[in-house]
Amino acid sequence: MIDKNNLKDVLRFLDFEENGDIFIQRYDNDAYLKVDFHKKELIYPEDRGLNINERQTCNFTQNENFVVFECVHRLLAQGYKPEHIELEPKWQVGHGASGGRADVLIKDNQGDTLLIIECKTAGNELTKAWSRTLQDGGQLFSYVKQTSTTQFICLYASNWIDDQVKPDYYLISLNDNERLINELNEISDIPVLTYADSKLRAVEDIFNTWKDTYQRDYTTRGLFESDIQAYHIGKKTTHWMI
User: Fold this and answer.
1) What percent of the chain has pLDDT over 70?
2) What is the pLDDT of residues 35-77, one digit of tens each?
3) How many domains does the chain have?
């Protein structure tokens, strides 16, 4: 687990520049990330367009905040623009959605929601969150109802182990597979559920589309690997739940 006791080692591993109590990393897209150990602050490039709705993740109070920070580092290093990254978007409850506050939201070049990431500490918290996702969609699917353009959702954790930062994530595509839909409709007496329709309906419909039509399809790569370009999220290894 990444915590305040090993955070400096984590930042050194990630090649942050160290100057006393300040650690800073600069990126090709004119963005930066900074950590102030004296003030216990996690500093994001808001002056470069990154949007922070609430500031609950900008301090050392919770270990999950360090996961969010490391995740944003990974996004910026991958080439995502700071103006397309939003932290802690919060939605009101209503109309069948459970609402809540997401950790990281990424928009595409048209300003539509491309990806929503929920961050958890490594180990038990990630395991519990993924089990809940498989069971009823958990927090992740409730966020999709709030922004119907969402193409991907991700449950993410990072760990400090063996003197390395090791990411662990589950990535779910919310884009319809037209070939699969056509094949299923040919053998079904009723139209199969699609994301195009369910995103406009209740959270349960979105989850049931994932569960029934796509058999809880997910992947554990395709977001942060070196052969994946920013904004071109793609699955390489698919797991099927039985």
Assistant:
1) 93
2) 999 999 999 999 999 999 988 999 999 999 999 999 999 999 9
3) 1
Buried b / exposed e across 85-107, counting CB within 10 Å, b at 16+? bbbbbebeeeeebbebbbbbbbb
Question: CA 84: distance to chain centroid?
Answer: 13
Q: What's the CA gap between 85 and 40, in Å, rounded?
A: 22
Q: How many residues make up the chain in this entry? A: 242
Residue closest to 20 by CA, chosen among 4, 36, 6, 33: 36
Q: What is the sign, positive or negative, of the torsion defined by CA atoms of 51, 152, 24, 60? A: positive
- Domain assignment of residue 31, yes or no: no
Structure tokens belonging to residue 67: 């996961």
Q: How confident is the model at residue 92 (pLDDT cuts 50, 70, 90)?
A: low
Rounded to whole angstroms, the Cα distance separating 197 from 177 reads 13
SS3 content of the chain, % helix, strand, coil (to 5): 30, 25, 45
Sequence-distant (≥ 6) Cβ neighbours of residue 161 within 8 angstroms: none
Would residue 162 count as lying in a domain? Answer: yes
Lowest-pLDDT range of 37-46, 66-75, 144-153, 231-240? 231-240
CA 52 to each of CA 42, 73, 109, 241: distance values in angstroms, whole numbers, following the listed order: 12, 15, 19, 36
Q: Is the pTM of this model over 0.70?
A: yes
Determine the structural domain holding residue 100 and report its residue range.
Answer: 62-239
CB neighbours of 231 closer than 8 A, spacing ≥ 6? 79, 80, 108, 109, 114
